[in-house]
Amino acid sequence: MPTLSDITTILQLPPVSNSAIAITGVNTLTQASATEISFLGSDAYLDDFAKTRAAAVLVHRKVKLPANPAVPVLIVEDADLAIGKLLEFFAPPVPTPPAGIDASASVSRDAWVDPTASVGPNVVIGARSRIGAKTVLHANVFIGEDVSVGADCQLFPNVVVRERITIGNRVIIHAGSVLGSDGFGYRWDGEKHAKILQIGTVIIEDDVELGSCVCVDRAKFSATRVGRGSKIDNLVQIAHNADIGPHCIMAGQSGLAGSVTLGAGVVMGGQCAIRDHTMIGPAAMIAACAGVAGNVDAKTVVSGIPAIPHRQTLREQAALRRLPDLITQVRKLREELDALKGK
Description:
Layout: H1 4-10, E1 25-26, E2 36-40, H2 46-51, E3 56-60, E4 73-76, H3 79-90, E5 100-101, E6 106-107, E7 112-113, E8 118-119, E9 124-125, E10 130-131, E11 136-137, E12 142-143, E13 148-149, E14 154-155, E15 160-161, E16 166-167, E17 172-173, E18 178-179, E19 186-188, E20 193-195, E21 201-204, E22 209-210, E23 215-216, E24 223-226, E25 231-232, E26 237-238, E27 243-244, E28 249-250, E29 255-256, E30 261-262, E31 267-268, E32 273-274, E33 279-280, E34 285-286, E35 291-292, E36 301-303, E37 308-309, H4 310-321, H5 323-342
Parallel strand pairs: 1-2, 2-3, 3-4, 5-8, 6-9, 7-10, 8-11, 9-12, 10-13, 11-14, 12-15, 13-16, 14-17, 15-18, 16-21, 17-22, 18-23, 21-24, 22-25, 23-26, 24-27, 25-28, 26-29, 27-30, 28-31, 29-32, 30-33, 31-34, 32-35, 34-36
Antiparallel strand pairs: 19-20, 36-37
């Protein structure tokens, strides 16, 4: 159990009073006890800060603190990042199966599993697939044929990785996600929706994290790709031949149609959607619930349906809120005009 002194050392901060106290955990400003540490990242929570009982508080440098705060304060450049470092010391370990292959697992004779990997109960590993060093496959994971999973990956229960898919190193895939389902490809042939075969693959690059129930569809040909370091939230749909650049963020329930390209560092809010064959430039931001129907330039923020530059959306919304009053004014002017015509 670290002391407050240990924490200032970890974060490379100057010592504070009461530094010998043992810190038992991390908590919110309102719920922290006298042996827990908390954090303050915005002026909006100064009232909570004034009432906190925490042993110490990590405070973002931009926050304007009152004079002589009642608790020790640790000034940091980014309170969220700092608290993230500390959470590693208090997080309980994730239960994982032991190294080796569980007796109930079904592993093809010509699959290769590194001896340091952990293969849990009822896992299936198909022919010619490879599982890298220290990778953990939790219960009921399905790995199809000709799949490559790199080192230090973690696939949680009921993840499905279909055939001919490549997963890099240090990839985390949460429960229930499916990689490699057929892309949604059909063509009307005059009588029915004819299925277009999807013969491509999926490539998940290093350091990607996929939330629960994420669907990454197989490409029609070539590859659907999720770039290194990208983080995908729960319930996200990534359609065939989408190409996600490095270090992108997709929040929950957002979706990409086929052949969408995201440049590096794109941020997508929750429940937003991008139509097929659209290109989103590097570092662009798509606001929550936006519907993107055309290309978006680099470093542009868009919102609304259809998505337009965010400032324009705000102006239009402000104008729309004034519409009832404008209608009333127009009605009065018409009545006055009609009265003048009647004289």
